Amino acid sequence: MAGIVGYGAFVPRKRIKTEEIARQWGKNPEEIRKGLLLQEKSVPGLDEDTITISVAAGRSALKRAGIDPARVGALYIGSESHPYAVKPSGTIVAEALGIGPEVHVADFEFACKAGTEAMFVALGLVESGRVEYAMGIGADTSQGAPNDALEYSASAGGAAFLFGNKDLLVDVLETYSVTTDTPDFWRREGEFYPRHGGRFTGEPAYFKHVLMATRGLLKKANLKTADFRFAVFHMPNGKFPLAAGKELGFTQKQMETGWLVSTMGNTYSGSSPTGLAAILDVAEPNDRILLTSFGSGAGSDSFALRATDLLPQRRGRAPTVRSMLDGPRRYLTYGEYASFREKIILKD
Amino acid sequence: MPSPRYWREVPSRYRLEAARCLGCGKVAFPARRVCPHCRGERWENTALSQQGKIITATVVRVAPAEFTMEAPYAVAVVETPEGARLMAQVADCDPATVQPGMEVSLEFRLLRQEGHGGILCYGHKAVPAG
Q: Is the residue at A106 inside a domain?
């Protein structure tokens, strides 16, 4: 059986509070904190992007797996903020991780579910026997337009998962995917900021796909919500994943460990994968974990996972997600944030 | 830095690849042909730990044009456990707090861009450990 042999995550150390953004635009921060359940979000420095986040997460995944990187036969990075329009992020990440040159590399894009897409394909290649190990990464440094609801959530971070056939930390019990044509959120070629359909991003987009994929997975795997100790859903804001989970029959306790959005923000392709990494940081052997992503456009990938006896022995080899969220961090003013996110036009 | 030179330095910049002299055991970073300590010419490949401590540091307040948005920032000489020394920018901290003896991690970061449409150059920066 194929499964996860190593995992890692990275969240930048800079933060901005919801109050700071709200004050800039004359909004009531309390309304936003209560409405979207967002306290603060991570902000990438000028020297951090999808590539550097992927390298940090990938290094941790390799440390936990304890394998020679040269044995990784495929590397896929899912992101909607690849630094180059033409030149795969994976070329640089593979070199930095010591993977290759005998490796298949591709960058994936599917709004916020590109990370689980990369994981899905990496798992399939290992299951087929085509490669011995394959890594799937979800990472983003996404932008929300100034004075848009997205500005309170769009943040930076990511997670890497290495798949293999032996010494598994996590068994993959089942997967399920759904995709439809739903124009809820998009960014046209050459546009700096994405656009979205406001409330249209809810019922017909996020909820429809997350519920459809999760229900499909539970039916396919013949499992019930009560069979899982943990569940994590894509986190575009604080409210959506809790509402979707509740409708599916999951409890607050099942969802609280992976629900990182309140202090991390929405790391887009890295959102539910980073939530999964936070769960693996504490899961005990035989705990079942459910992961459902969502990518606008739109689609969802759902995974049923089970922790093995090896997981507690290996997780201490790299930093936990909580240590990054609760560890040293620097709070920015809106002015600093605007300059770090290159929202200010400068002279050449 | 022209792209071909940057490309040639990828092993040391991306993976901190270094060389250990088979004659005296000293580590050279980046790798060299002749050992500066014993004049030996036989080497084995090694990689530096992604950690170290600061030997000396300074704060850059008037930065070159492409780093003005980052100023003020600290630049330090970092010694790794292998005994190799490298110069690196110190990120994610108040530059005034960067002092000799400080333990740091070496993290993969974007170092610079070759203008608006040029290549992106990556390497390692030091960040306070822990």
A: yes
CA A11, A14, A19, A23 dihedral sign is: negative
Residue A348: the pLDDT is 64
**Site from B108, B109, B112 to mutate, A interface, most A CB atoms within 10 angstroms:** B108
- Known catalytic residue: A234? yes
Give the residue-averaged pLDDT of A316-325: 97
Look up A104 and say whether it is catalytic.
no
Q: Per the structure, how many domains does chain B have?
A: 1
CATH for A95: 3.40.47.10
| B18-31 tens-digit pLDDT | 999 999 999 999 99
Domain residues for the domain of A195 are: 170-307
Structure confidence by residue, pLDDT tens digits, A76-99: 999 999 999 999 999 999 999 999
Do A221 and A288 contact (CB within 8 A), yes or no?
no
Integer Cα distance of A148 and A341 in angstroms: 15
Distance from A264 to chain B by nearest Cα, in Å? 17
Same domain flag for A183 and A295: yes
Structure tokens belonging to residue A337 = 């944030």
Top residue of A47, A87, A342 to mutate, by most chain B CBs within 10 Å, is A47
Q: At what angle do helices A239-248 and A208-221 cross, to 10 degrees?
A: 40
Q: What is the tens place of the pLDDT at every residue in B44-86?
A: 999 999 999 999 999 999 999 889 889 999 999 999 999 999 9
Among the partner residues A49, A56, A327, nearest to B110 by beta-carbon distance: A49
Question: Does the residue A248 lie in any domain?
Answer: yes
Residue A17 and residue A108 in one domain: yes
Mean pLDDT for A242-251 is 98
Of the candidates A46, A92, A328, the beta carbon closest to that of B122 is on A92
The total domain count for chain A is: 2
pTM of the model: 0.97
- Domain containing B63 equals 3-128
Query: What token pair was written down for A175?
Result: 């997967």
* Contact B120/A at CB under 8 A: yes
Min mean pLDDT across A54-68, A181-195, A309-323 is at A181-195
Q: What residue in B sits closest to A338 (Cα-Cα)?
A: B69
Question: Taking CB atoms and an 8 Å limit, are A45 and B92 in contact across chains?
Answer: yes
| CATH code: domain of residue B72 | 2.40.50.840
A13 and A149: one domain?
yes
Closest CA to A62 of A91, A17, A96, A28: A96
